């Protein structure tokens, strides 16, 4: 019972001491934090990767920054110098924050801030920051058929490969946005198209006369958007009667040619047979005429 009382008194004493001096033990360890572990910026803008030291007792800690990619980590700040991919494009803000002054798309990666404090009991700490550099789309490549027969299928394509994150696509007809689903708009309700916002493909299963017009595509992401120039698609009727008449004319012409060839072939055969018969007659008669007639 006496031992229990002494243990309880020790616990109370320790609790009282810690409550009165909460920072006493914290200064024996280096502790890092960041104000934003998933920052983003647009290409060519500046961005800050914050690495804040909450507690430390070492007066001159060693600070390092590493860029982590699929190929492994590489130094971007070492021995108090900016190096590697960020050379001449970054600075250190005391005590350990990394400021990139001109971000490029290749800077998208994870970055690790490491602080080593040899005079602290917990002498090492690190934080990882995931940086995304967004890239505005460039002008997309668009293909629009110039003319399509009424009732036939048609496909319009839009491609853009520079933007990051990956671009999504919108199509416009006569400056008006085409909805993803035609059934959501009275104006496009009877249209037969399917729009894929991920691939930029606009497909018509059966083109109507109302589908004729000027079309252009917009590629967009979080960094901005870009558009291709408008292109006109016309819808024309198929002349069924004309096609049938044309086919009949071709058939008649081919038939006439075939008949002519057959007649010519038969005429040549008859002429050849008559010539052979005549030649045979002429060669036999002189033989009989040359022999004397015996009575």
Quick structural overview:
It is a single-pass type I membrane protein. This protein has 295 residues and is of the alpha+beta class.
- Note the gap between the termini: 178 Å
Q: What about the largest sheet?
A: 6 strands, mixed
The radius of gyration over CA amounts to 45 Å
CATH architecture of the domain at 25-134: Sandwich
- Strand order of the biggest β-sheet: 2-11-10-5-6-7
Could you give the order of the helices and strands?
HEEEEEEEEEEEEEEEEEEEEEH
What fraction of residues sit in β-strands? 35-45%
Low-confidence stretches: 11-26, 282-291
Q: Mean pLDDT, nearest integer?
A: 85
- Name the CATH superfamily assignment of the domain at 25-134: Immunoglobulins
Structural class comes to alpha+beta
Number of strands: 21
Helix share bin: 10-25%
Number of helices: 2
**CATH class designation of the domain at 25-134:** Mainly Beta
User: Based on CA inertia axes, which overall geometry fits?
Assistant: elongated
Q: Mind explaining what this structure looks like?
A:
Residues 22-125, 137-234 form the Ig-like domain. The chain is 24% helix and 35% strand. It is of the alpha+beta class. Among the domains are: 25-134, Immunoglobulin-like (Sandwich); 141-236, Immunoglobulins (Immunoglobulin-like). The protein is elongated and about 120 Å long. The N and C termini lie far apart (178 Å). Residues 11-26 and 282-291 have low confidence and may be disordered.
């Amino acid at each position: 019972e006496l031992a229990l009382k002494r243990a309880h008194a020790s616990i109370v004493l320790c609790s009282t001491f810690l409550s009165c001096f909460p920072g006493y033990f914290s200064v024996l360890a280096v502790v890092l934090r960041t104000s934003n572990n998933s920052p983003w910026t647009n290409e060519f803008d500046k961005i800050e990767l914050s690495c804040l030291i909450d507690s430390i007792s070492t007066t001159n800690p060693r600070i390092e920054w590493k860029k982590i990619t699929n190929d492994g980590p590489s130094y971007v700040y070492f021995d108090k110098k900016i190096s590697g991919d960020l050379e001449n494009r970054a600075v250190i803000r005391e005590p350990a924050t990394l400021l990139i002054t001109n971000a490029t798309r290749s800077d998208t990666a994870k970055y690790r801030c490491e602080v080593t404090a040899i005079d602290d009991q917990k002498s090492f700490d690190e934080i990882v920051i995931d940086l995304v550099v967004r890239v505005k789309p460039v002008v997309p490549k668009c293909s629009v058929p110039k003319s399509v027969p009424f009732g036939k299928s048609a496909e319009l394509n839009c491609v853009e490969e520079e933007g990051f994150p990956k671009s999504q696509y919108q199509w416009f007809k006569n400056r008006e946005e085409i909805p993803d689903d035609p059934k959501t708009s009275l104006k496009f309700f009877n249209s037969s198209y399917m729009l894929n916002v991920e691939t930029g493909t606009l497909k018509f299963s059966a083109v109507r006369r109302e589908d004729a017009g000027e079309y252009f595509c917009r590629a967009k992401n979080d960094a901005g958007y870009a558009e291709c120039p408008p292109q006109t698609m016309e819808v024309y009727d198929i002349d069924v009667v004309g096609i049938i008449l044309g086919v009949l004319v071709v058939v008649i012409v081919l038939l006439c040619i075939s008949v002519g060839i057959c007649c010519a072939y038969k005429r040549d055969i008859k002429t050849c047979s008559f010539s052979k018969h005549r030649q045979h007659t002429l060669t036999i008669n002189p033989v009989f005429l040359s022999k004397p007639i015996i009575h």
